[in-house]
Structures are given as structure tokens and as C-alpha cells.
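Hello Y.,

Per our agreement to keep a running log of every chain we model this quarter, I'm adding this entry. I've kept the format consistent with earlier entries: sequence first, then predicted structure.
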Amino acid sequence: MTRKKINLAYIANDSARKATFKKRKKGLLKKMSELSTLCAVQTCAIIYSPYDPEPEVWPSPLGVQSVIARFKSMPEAEQSRKMVNQESFLGQRIIKSEEQLKKQQIENREREMTQVMYRSLVGDQGVQNMGVADLNDLEWLVDKSVEEIDERIKSLREQIVPPPQVMTAGMSNSHVNSTDGGKYGTEATKNRAETEMDAYTPNQQSSMNQKVGFGLRNEDMAVYQNPQWLEELLRSNDQNMGGQLGKNEDIPFAFNGNNSSLWSFP
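Predicted structure for the entry above:
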């Protein structure tokens, strides 16, 4: 639990002021002892109190004289560089308080003009009765808000990731076939086959369809589905080709495992 902040003001009550003096003096001497031990620096203190006729010195009268002698041996500019008395200390406090007050006034003025700007946007308040100073402050606030909005828009635009590039439809069939061996390659092969078929004459196309089993009539298909006819055809092929079918002798027509033979007809 944090301690309550103490108001730095003169304590009017005598007993409370005396108790505070003793407690703070003890804490000051303890801090000086710690500073001397931890940092190996020479320190001394001379404390005058309205409650004691003689001043209290720390760490000892001899130690105080040694530190004072060393201090006086320094140049005067160095002696007074960080030295303050009661008057200069109060002057520094006043300057600091004035700066804080000015900063707070600027913040309050900005909040006030922000409220005026919002009321003007919704139509609750006009600017006809405002003075020149108020109008100047309002103009400055509006310009500042516009700049912040522009910076925010610019930041959001920079964060947007560009969409991925889509491959165009003008790619060649060979490129599609080489990059994708799936359905694109099959489609490209089909298109190329149709193009090559168009190069033949109608008679050549009809002959080719008959050799590979395409373009058959229903009655022709019924004949091909007859196993007895198929066996006779295979035997006649073996006799004509001299048994050159080899291990592919069970495969009818031109389907012998090499698709390139389909297009080897004259």
C-alpha cells in the first residue's frame, strides 16, 4: 500500500512540528551515512535546531572541518554551481509551478475548443458570436485534427497488403502442361489432339476412328462386344504380324501402352 502524499507546508502545531523534525533529521543522517558507505564520498551535515542551543554536526567536528576545507579550496564558480539558499530554492519552485500552470491552461483550452468543434459539427453551437482569439484557436485545432486524420489514412494505406497476382488466361498449353500435371495438362493434351485431328482429311479421320475404336455404329459395337469375334481377330493379328505382339498380345486395337502410336498413321 502506497503512503499518502504529504503536503509540503509549514506545520502549525508545535508538537507535531517537533516530532516531524526529529524523524526527518534521523532519516537524513541515515541517508548520508549510506551515501558515504556505498559511494565512498565525503559528506557532512550541520543542523541548527530551535529545540537545541548547539548545532548538531555529522559525522564529527573533525570530519566536518575536513569537508569544509576541501570545499573552500574549490573555485568559487564550482562552489556556487549547485548551491541554493532559501530564497533561490523558493524561486525555483515558483518557476516550476508557473510552467506546470501554463501547461495545464493549454490543455484545458484545447479541450474547450474540442467541445466547441464537436458542437459546431452537429449544429448545437455556431461560431457567429465567437471572438477573434476563439476563432484562431478553433482554426488551429481543426487544422491539427485534419493532419492527424491524413496521417492515419496514410498509415492504414501502407498497411494494406496487395492482392496476389493471378495468372492470366493467355498462357500457352505447353506452359500449363509443364507446370501442372493434373487436369490442366490433360485438357492441354486433349486440345492438341483435336488440333492434330483437324489436319487430316475426312477419309483419314474416318479410317483412324475405325482403327482406334471411335465413330462406330451401334451394330458395329455389338459385333466388337462378341468375345468369339474378338478371339478370331486376335488370332488373325498374330498370324499377320508373325507373333510380334509379344507381351501385349492381350491388348486390342492400338492401345499397347504407348499413346504416341495413336498418331502414327499416315
